[in-house]
Structure formats: structure tokens, C-alpha cells
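Collaborator request, handled under Task 6.
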Amino acid sequence: MIRFYFSLQYFLIFCAFLFLQFHYNSPAHAQTTVKSGIIPLPVSVKILPGNFELSNATHITWNNPDDAATASIFNSQLKQQYSIVIHEEANSNLETNVIRMQRINAGELPAEGYRISIDENKIIIQAKDGAGIFYALQSLLQLCPPMAASGKLLIPKTILIDYPRFNWRGMHLDVARHFFSKEQVKKYIDYLAAYKFNTFHWHLTDDQGWRIEIKKYPLLTSVGAWRDGTLIGHYSNQPQFDSIRYGGFYSQEDIREVVAYAQKRFITIVPEIEMPGHVLALLSAYPELACSGSSFNVAKNWGVFNDVLCPTEETISFMQNVLLEVMELFPSKYIHIGGDECPKEQWQKSVYCQNLMQQLRLKNENALQGYFTRRIETFVSAHGRSIIGWDEILEDGLSTSAAVMSWRGIDGGTAAASSNHNVVMSPTDFCYFDYYQSQNTHEPLAIGGYVPLEKVYAFEPMPPALATDKQSFIMGGQANLWTEYIESFSKLQYMIFPRICAMSEVLWSQKENRNYADFVARLSANHFPEFNAAKINYSKAILEAKFALRPNENGAGIIARLFTDDPSATINYNLSSYENEILSATNNTQFERGPIDLLITHSVIMNIKSKDVSGNLSAENVQQLEINKATAKNITLLNAPDAKYSNGGPFTLVNGIVGHLPWNGSEWLGFSGKNIEAMVDLGKSEMISKISLGVLDDEGSWIYLPQQVTVSISSDGKTFRTVGTKNNEAIKKTGGRKATFTFTKTTTRYIKIIAVNAGNIPAGKAGSGNPAWLFADEIGIE
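C-alpha cells returned to the collaborator:
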């Protein structure tokens, strides 16, 4: 379990001018917190002079027997972190050196809310329910400073009131792609509990492995839990695999143990059993459930596969039997049935499916998936539970008892809530912790995309377009951790920390109280030291020196602004040419306070690092800038990029940065189903003979090369002459990374580049039927 340091001096600086009132029954009366270091940020905190001394002589007592287990968990945390063991007892009348846990009348605090009152003699914790008691003790741990030499913890006198903003505060873990042991899953639950998450979404089945024992169908684990190899490196169109047998599963006894462990920490586990797609592991064990084919193998590659369940009565009965055992193991209200990324090619070819569609008068295969989902939903509802699924399940009709998890953006969640469905918001561009969190080229391999800490913190689960009377259907939000590229628990830690802290504050804390700079200060001062003490492998991206580029308004070149998220940090930089010749005019051997603006007029390699006030060095950030005639020139786009991949706008195509591979979303513009039509104005007539457009080929991420790229030039911006056209095959032959055109030197001012989107993704490919993405990173003109 994590422990948290507290600096009394840090509090007292702010206590001189902040005060607190305790009208806590309404969010309208929420007060801005005194700087307490607690994450997630409480509704209100007041720190007073004086301390409570916690030691081995301290007692912890309760007036509700259900809180005895919570007291024991807290005591074990103290023992582990401070070698302190306090006395546990029920209904004690002690008035000094005591922590008293009290259940109070339901109307005095919201559900999961709590109040802490600390004076020199006692700590009083009040809540209406056990969850509030538990969360109060987690906050109390964060108030504990390093233990004094006397063996006592001096906890400041405090009055704290707190309650959550959202009811669903979720973290997800995929154990199908890479398996994590029962003990590692418990540790993951500890992390969630420390930051007041109350939902653990456990993704137990997928194409690459079936991880839960089903006694009625033993082949699901004896066959489906094991694969004969795993993809090496990043997804590609020419994948390579190792030959190492890989897998594992949880027995039903394991599941019960983990569920009980989570319940004691007031975390509900929501199991996910994928259907009708993402089922190769299932079909490898029971191939008769497919529409065609007699044998299947557990997938070694990542992505989406055409082999899905056939919606026969046999299949539906099979999945109902699976869910019976799942529901017996998991007491959660919701059972997650997946429902995402289900290709329909096998259904289109199936005589059974086509006849069934005719019989049921279904208009297409999407409606057939809706029929399958409703059959499962009816069964689950008959057993007193409800289904939840990814937002694709909304497309073909659900009863209002079904909930939707919106992952493809906020629109699905808005539509679902507008139709009276409960919704969990989990859009990729804020909530996918398998995405990169730094622009640093030294980042560990990830699936792609870019979700830095600041973007997580900016997540707003309540859709802005949702009508006020429908907002109650937004249950909350969730971060997802898919594990295609997370092969160890150490890397798991790296991918969630510290983004889990930001997500906890988004989902718990009052929106009006949140402030990113304050959050970073609390994180670095109070939580990073604790991560170090607990030997948690966490990302230090916010400690890194960063850069932002803009055109040089006074002439050629670009301005690179170097800065850090920590305003007290200092920065060192070095610029070198590709021949490794040091550029003495712009080389800095000292560390200095940022931001620092550098004028870049020719191609360089930029190395920057920072140092915090304690002297801790960040990782070095290395960035290559390629300056050409297009760099920082005026550029316009006929079609705007998708909001998810619009970093820097059109300037991204002329900012001198060539995106590195594997791709990072911060370096590219992405267009979903749209063409790129770019116009570059060189500002004056220039002699040129070469034009290039950087593109990306990553079909596993739904990113396709353009069908065709055409470049044209003009002297007046009105009449253009085509100087080259290439199709996607020609681009592939030259590496699939650039569409490059060379021609006889000519004088021109305007360059037009049109890249035609590949259209809808073809059958048999990941994301089939969806619009293809077209990604571009840099225009080069020489």
C-alpha cells in the first residue's frame, strides 16, 4: 500500500490567509482547500496549529462492527509503512490518544463522504457508510509525515470534509493480452483504493487468452488460456513472433479471494466477458461456436479478427452458462459483455445468419449483433443484474437497464445518456493509459497515441452538450489499461503512475476546485517521494524539460521555447548539427530558469534536461528538427484534422518535427475519413526541385496510407500545375513513410498537396467498415 508524506510547513504558509466554513451538504458551499497535499483534492480542509501524536499507544475504535476490518487494514498499513501497531477495539470510551470511527445519520453526509476532525487528543472520523470511513483513513494516511525519531507521527490538527463528485470512479485492467498474477492484481487494487477509486473493470477474456475458470467448460482454460507465441515489438503488417508458450488463468477460488479483497476496500469488480467478437481464445477451445471453420488458435498478434461467435441457440446457451458462473463469482450490479470491434464478414457469408436475419426481419448484420446483445441482456436482467458494454452496443437498440461505456469519444456517451442509459465516460483521448505520456523518444514502447498527465487532468466526464435533465445518467468515468505492450508489473506501474492520480482527482474532486498547477505541486512534493519509498516505477514526464515550437515572426526559422511544468526547475540544453558539431552560439552548459526561447534556423538535434530544486535530474529529451523551405511557412488546410489528433493545428505539418516510430500522437495530424488538402505559401518565389509529405502506415491502429498523393505548384496561388502523383503502392515501395516527388528545378511560391483518404477499412482488417485514418507529420520542400 502507498503511504504519503506531509509537510506541516507547506500547510502553514497558506493557513495564514485561508479560512473554511462547513456548509458541506451542498456542492454550492464547497470551499477551496488549504494546500494539504491530499490527492484527490478534498472538498475542504482547514489546518490548525498543533498536532496529534500517533504511536504504538494509540487506539482505534468503532461504533459499527462492519468497520472493524477497515481498522485492521489501516493498522496493517501503519505497521508496513511506519512500524507502528495501534490497538484495535470496539466501542471504546477513551478520550485521549484515540482514533474514533463513527457512523452518523444518513442525511449529514453524502454517500462515500466523510469528515475528519483532529485535535491534540483524538481523531474523530465520521461517515454515513463504510466506504466513507475507509476513504477517511486513506486521507489520514496522506496526512502522515515521515515518522519522527521518537517513534511518533505528528499529524497536524485538521478539520476536513470530503465527498465524491461521481459515483463510478473506475480503473480497468486487461489481463488477456498479458497476464498478471493474483497477488499483482491485489496490488493493483491497493493502488485504486489509495486514490479512492470504487470500481475495478477486470477484462478477463479476449483473442489472446481466456483468464477465468468456467467449470462447465474446462477447455476454456486448458486450451484457451495459452498461446504458442507473442508478437515481438510493435504491430506491423509483417509481424514477427517468439515461440514461447504464454498464458495463465485465475481459478474460481482465486476470483473469490480477489473479489473479497476488493470488497474490504470498497471496490466493486466488474468482470468483462467479450462477445460476440474478440473470441479467438474461446473458439480455440470450442470451435463449433463459430459460423465456419473447424479449428482456431489463440491469437499471437494484436488487433481485430474476423472469427466471431455465430449467434446460434447453441452459442447463446453456451454464453448464458458462462455468465451464470461469472455472476455467481462477481456480485456486481453490472456485467460487462464487451460488444466492441465485431467484424461481420463471417455473418455475411453464413447461411444460418442470413436466414436468421430474414426470419427476424433484421435490416443488416449490425442489427444481428443487436439481437444477440438483447438476448444476453434479457438473460442477465432475469438474474437481477444489468449489462454494460462498449458504445457499439448502443447502435442497435437496448433496454434502458443496459449501461454504455463510451470509448470512441464523448458523442456515444451523450447519445446514450440522452436515451436514458447510464453511462461511463472513457474516451480514448483522455482515458487510455496504454498511450504514450511523454514526447521523449526514450519512452517505453506503447501502442500509440499521446495522453500526457495534463490531458488526463483536463478530462471532463460530463458532456457539454448533454441536457441538464439527462446529466444524472452520467455515472462517472474510467481509465483503461490495455496490455498489448505491458508485459511486466513494473511497466504497468509506469503506465498508470502518476496518471492514476490525475484521474482520481477528475472523478472525485469538485470541478470548480481543481487546478492543474496546484495538483502538480501536491503530486511532486507529497506523492513522488512516496513512490520512491515504495519503489514504484513511475513516469517522470512532468519533470522533463519540454519544448513548444512557433514560427519566428521576424523572419526565417522557428522559435523553440524550453520549459518545465515545475516553475522552480532549471533547464540545460545543447544543440548540435547532424555532424555532431557543437553549435557554440546556442550551447548552454549551465542550468537556468525557464522558459528559454531559442531561434532555430537550420537542422539540429536538440538535447534538453531539467533539474528540480532538490537537484534531481530529469531524463534527457532528445528531439531532431529538420529545417527546410516549408518550415514555419504559412499553411492552410481545406479540411480540419480530427480533434483527437490536431496538436498544433496546420503548423504541425511545417514545424520541423518528423514523427518518430512507433508513432506518438503529439507529432502528427490525423484525419478520420477525410482527405488532406494543404496549401503552403513560401512567402516569395523560391527555386525548388523536391516536395515530400510524411505519412503513416499502421493498419492495426486503423491508419492507412493515402490512396493517392498529388502535388501541384503555382506562382499566383490560383493557377496550379501538377508536378507529381503517386498511389499507395508506389509509396509502399519506397518504405511507406513518405510520398516524395522530385522534378526539374523550377521557381514557385505556392505548393498544394492533396492526399486522398483510403476510405472505409476493408473486410478482414482491424476496424473493418469504419473510416480509415490518414496521418501526416511533415511537409518538406527543397
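The cover message to the collaborator said: "Residues 1-34 have pLDDT under 50 and may be disordered. The two ends are 57 Å apart (CA to CA). Please let us know whether this matches your experimental observations."
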